[in-house]
Specification:
The chain is extended. It is built from 8 helices and no strands. It is 39% helix and 0% strand. The chain starts with 33 loop residues before the first helix and ends in a 35-residue tail after the last helix.
Length: 242
């Protein structure tokens, strides 16, 4: 589907596409952050592909197209990107225990805002505190000695809560340029393909598709599918009559 299909879903010209708006394709809505999503998918896919031997034809082909599309995405920076990158870098430096060794703002792809930390042990009981107790019949002395067993430890979050600022959005014209350069439809369709490839790599690694078959195919099994085996040659033109 050509990228022009999006134009039919837009009533007026806008500088930025509105997330959640129709794209012109049934069931496919405008993605809120296509650039960061694709950078994550392509970067993660390349990391997974590195686990496959270099002689694998699948790795060679998937790696080539992934790198090519990643270079296209990296070639476009949204308005205000540099200022955002500075703020994001500062945030990363302030919370090293959350981001670890990661110091590149463009490689942070998740944003979340939590207002309250809940004990996961309460969720299954409709957020109602359950009294601690021991099962079975117990004497008062036994219950006194074992009271510490049923005491619940205090719940503390494993990491600090960081309010992450999302990357600025690309302009509509920039998205249109990306779609033209990739040539695979709307950028939302490109994301769907990238998600599928990202999952497929796991399947290929699990099945070790690069290894030799345990049972060799019989000789001539694939001859039928060879090229130019069943297509007759060009017929000679008829000879001219004298």
């Amino acid at each position: 589907m050509k990228s022009t299909s999006r134009l039919f879903a837009v009533v007026k010209s806008e500088r930025f596409l509105t997330p959640g708006n129709p794209t012109g394709l049934t069931g496919l809505l405008t993605h809120p952050a296509p650039r960061s999503q694709l950078i994550y998918l392509y970067s993660s896919t390349l990391d997974k592909l590195s686990k496959i031997p270099e002689h694998s034809v699948y790795r060679q082909s998937a790696e080539a197209i992934t790198k090519q599309r990643l270079s296209i995405i990296n070639g476009f920076k949204p308005p205000g990107y540099e200022d955002w990158a500075q703020r994001a870098k500062k945030k990363i430096e302030e919370h090293p225990n959350v981001f670890g060794k990661n110091r590149d703002p463009s490689s942070v792809f998740m944003s979340a805002q939590l207002t309250e930390e809940k004990d996961a042990r309460d969720v299954q009981w409709d957020n109602k505190k359950q009294p601690a107790g021991l099962e079975g019949t117990r004497t008062p002395e036994e219950r006194k000695q074992a009271s510490g067993v049923a005491t619940r430890a205090a719940f503390t979050p494993e990491a600090d809560i960081v309010q992450w600022e999302n990357e600025p959005p690309l302009e509509a014209t920039q998205i249109a340029e990306i779609e033209d350069k990739i040539g695979a439809g709307l950028i939302e369709e490109v994301i769907q393909v990238a998600e599928g490839e990202h999952q497929l790599v796991d399947t290929m690694i699990e099945s070790k598709s690069w290894e030799e078959l345990e049972e060799k195919p019989p000789q001539g099994q694939w001859d039928y599918f060879a090229r130019d085996q069943h297509t007759p040659g060009t017929q000679e033109p008829p000879k001219a009559k004298n």
